[in-house]
Amino acid sequence: MNTRTRKPIRYRRKRRRHLLHFFLPMLCMILALCACASYILNRSAGADSGLVSGILSLLGGSAEEEISRYASANGYDISNYPQSLIDLYDRNKETKDFVFEYPAKKDETPAIDLSTLNTSSVPLLMQWDQRWGYKQYAGDLFGLSGCGPTCLSMVAIYLTGNTNMNPAWMADFATSHGYASDGSGSYWTLFSEGGVSLGFDVTEIPLDEQRIIDNLEVGNPIVAVVGPGDFTTTGHFIVLTGYQNGQIKVNDPNSRKNSKKLWDYDRISGQIKDLWAFR
Question: pLDDT value at position 49?
Answer without folding.
Answer: 44
